[in-house]
């Protein structure tokens, strides 16, 4: 055997050893120490009555010692299946997000309203954690016009907190609002076609009526879409409000000066606008997996 041949053999041997070594470490590696039976699976997306455009739930992997698994076990180390009552396939867009810390976020969007839904999570065809999950009854999809008649029931289904500090604070200065005179003043002060963009909404019998003020009111599509989505899910009480479609807060009057209530996507310490989630957030919730 020449020196060259010898070198070639050693090289092959070395490569084979490397391969063996890496496959050995793979098979007993990270995902191998997950105890799939102990997987914790929870979240609002496992309840039929939690109706959002893209539903979601969480998966926390647990290791052999019963502790949280804190690394990625791969991009999608388990399978998720959705099945309806009669076993038929469900039209769904599903995404598993690896947080790379042992927790996974499962998002899914259904494209039809279902009666009963079964969600199962499996590893090598064996159920993990408390899988399968039964979502009993009516599972509404985003465009189902199926409003829950009682607001309080809807709050409960959505696990809404009793209040949000910021909204409470912003609203606190508006105790008695005379809708007619407030609307007159708001329109008179902010109906400047190029400087302001305002939408006046009235929700009556869960139908939405809207009039805009100003030239650049294209962003009404965002306030329209979140209100429309809400009225498909719950019967809203009759409401009237102004939404500022612009990029800066409008009402600079002091509290003593009787400011008018205007809902805005922005605020500041020196303005009285009532701040609500911005259109990019509401739109992301509405369009996720859409
Ligand atoms: C384990 O993970 C869950 C969910 O991610 C978390 O709530 C809990 O605090 C974690 N437990 C420990 C001991 O870190
Ligand atoms: C608002 O301004 C426009 C343009 O200046 C005007 O045509 C309209 O009559 C005003 N509307 C009200 C309610 O003041």
From TrEMBL:
<dbReference type="InterPro" id="IPR017868">
    <property type="entry name" value="Filamin/ABP280_repeat-like"/>
</dbReference>
<feature type="repeat" description="Filamin">
    <location>
        <begin position="31"/>
        <end position="137"/>
    </location>
</feature>
<dbReference type="GO" id="GO:0012505">
    <property type="term" value="C:endomembrane system"/>
</dbReference>
<keyword id="KW-0328">Glycosyltransferase</keyword>
<dbReference type="InterPro" id="IPR051091">
    <property type="entry name" value="O-Glucosyltr/Glycosyltrsf_90"/>
</dbReference>
<keyword id="KW-0808">Transferase</keyword>
<dbReference type="Pfam" id="PF05686">
    <property type="entry name" value="Glyco_transf_90"/>
</dbReference>
<comment type="similarity">
    <text>Belongs to the KDELC family.</text>
</comment>
<dbReference type="InterPro" id="IPR006598">
    <property type="entry name" value="CAP10"/>
</dbReference>
<dbReference type="InterPro" id="IPR013783">
    <property type="entry name" value="Ig-like_fold"/>
</dbReference>
<feature type="domain" description="Glycosyl transferase CAP10">
    <location>
        <begin position="157"/>
        <end position="286"/>
    </location>
</feature>
<keyword id="KW-0256">Endoplasmic reticulum</keyword>
<dbReference type="InterPro" id="IPR001298">
    <property type="entry name" value="Filamin/ABP280_rpt"/>
</dbReference>
<keyword id="KW-0732">Signal</keyword>
<dbReference type="Pfam" id="PF00630">
    <property type="entry name" value="Filamin"/>
</dbReference>
<dbReference type="InterPro" id="IPR014756">
    <property type="entry name" value="Ig_E-set"/>
</dbReference>
<protein>
    <recommendedName>
        <fullName>Glycosyl transferase CAP10 domain-containing protein</fullName>
    </recommendedName>
</protein>
<comment type="pathway">
    <text>Protein modification; protein glycosylation.</text>
</comment>
<keyword id="KW-0325">Glycoprotein</keyword>
<dbReference type="GO" id="GO:0046527">
    <property type="term" value="F:glucosyltransferase activity"/>
</dbReference>
<feature type="signal peptide">
    <location>
        <begin position="1"/>
        <end position="24"/>
    </location>
</feature>
């Amino acid at each position: 055997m020449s020196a060259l041949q010898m070198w070639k053999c050693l090289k092959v041997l070395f490569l084979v050893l490397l391969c063996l070594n890496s496959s050995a470490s793979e098979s007993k590696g990270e995902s191998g120490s997950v105890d799939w039976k102990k997987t914790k699976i929870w979240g609002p997306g496992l309840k039929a009555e939690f109706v959002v455009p893209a539903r979601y739930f969480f998966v926390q992997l647990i290791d052999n010692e019963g502790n949280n698994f804190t690394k990625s076990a791969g991009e999608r180390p388990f399978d998720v299946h959705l099945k309806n009552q009669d076993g038929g396939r469900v039209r769904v867009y599903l995404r598993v997000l690896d947080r790379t810390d042992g927790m996974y976020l499962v998002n899914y969007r259904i494209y039809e309203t279902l009666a009963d839904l079964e969600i199962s999570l499996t590893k090598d065809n064996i159920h993990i954690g408390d899988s399968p999950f039964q979502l009993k009854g009516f599972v509404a999809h985003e465009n189902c016009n199926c409003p829950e008649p009682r607001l309080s029931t809807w709050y409960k289904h959505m696990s809404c907190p009793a209040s949000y500090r910021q909204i409470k604070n912003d609203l606190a200065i508006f105790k008695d609002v005379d809708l007619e005179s407030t609307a007159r003043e708001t329109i008179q002060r902010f109906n400047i076609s190029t400087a302001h963009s305002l939408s006046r909404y009235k929700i009556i019998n869960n139908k939405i009526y809207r009039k805009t003020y100003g030239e650049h009111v294209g962003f009404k599509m965002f306030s329209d879409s979140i209100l429309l989505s809400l009225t498909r899910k719950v019967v809203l009480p009759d409401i009237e409000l102004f939404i500022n479609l612009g990029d800066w807060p409008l009402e600079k009057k002091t509290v003593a000066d009787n400011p008018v209530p205007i809902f805005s996507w922005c605020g500041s310490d020196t303005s009285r606008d009532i701040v609500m989630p911005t259109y990019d957030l509401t739109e992301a919730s509405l369009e996720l997996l859409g």
